[in-house]
Amino acid sequence: MDVSVVIPLYNEKESLIELYDWIYSNFKMSKYSFEVIFIDDGSNDESWKIICELIKKSNNVRGISLVKNYGKSQALNAGFKHAKGNLIATLDADLQDSPDELIPMIEMLKKENLDIVSGWKKIRHDNLFLKNLPSKLFNFSARAISGIKLHDFNCGIKVYKKNVIKSINVSGEMHRYIPFLASQAGFKKISEKEVKHQKRKYGVTKFGSERFINGFLDLLTLWFLDKFGKRPMHFFGLIGSLMFSVGLIFTIYLGIDKIYFNTNSRLITERPQFFIALTTIIIGVQFFISGFIGELLLRQRRNSDKDYTISQIIPSD
Q1: Labelling 218: which of 21, 96, 135, 276 has CA 20 to 30 A away?
Q2: Where do the structural domains in the chain lie, given as residue ranges?
Q3: Does CATH number 3.90.550.10 belong to domain 3-126+155-207?
Q4: Does the CA dihedral 36-76-316-314 come out positive or negative?
């Protein structure tokens, strides 16, 4: 199998047949064998029924149904796990990503021997204030923190080598940062291609404005894990040492001042320096404890169970 096209979806019944026909029309004229994997992320419309009908009509279609709506990252992870292609492509199911871009992106990846080719929706057909401007700010932050020069981290259309996608685990809401995750895993050959972005034809977007806040918090998490994920004591221990040292200096100062200089002055506990010393020492100790706990958890960590449950796979692996 040359290419697996992984498509997560939630309540996209109107677009599925049109989307598959569009993908098929592109691949039938190419030299690549392919499969299309639809991951139904707990849809409550007739999406799964339509996927089953497509499976009956075509040997190129596979379907994975999740028992409830887990989110795009978990749906992608399920699709990646069951993909058989040497290359893995992703598309959103809402027809805003054009399948016409897939073959050129595959050719670009192979010609330049890249690990990832990411789409760049340079011209967007979204609301300026609700999506376009927040997206630009989000991508600017992602570039600054990750060091990866992509214009559109969250573009749904991407192409990966199989070993890239099989080496990372996409959980939580980390689908926005798959290039960052891949870079952390050692796959540095990442590039982008400008792609056509289309207006939504059916339904409404399933993502609210809170995705940008969540995305920024996830970005900070990835930055921390990249810098200190294997040595949490270096982060917590440094801050703890600084705080404890400040508290210790104030404590020594108060002791010397009380014993030798101001023996008849007010009680130490009535002086503001006492509370600074007490607070910083307590905070310093807490940071030390956090660092120790992080080191212990890191040493005892095991691969966690997958954070989604599949109800059905057609056809079975």
Answers
A1: 96
A2: 3-126+155-207, 232-300
A3: yes
A4: negative
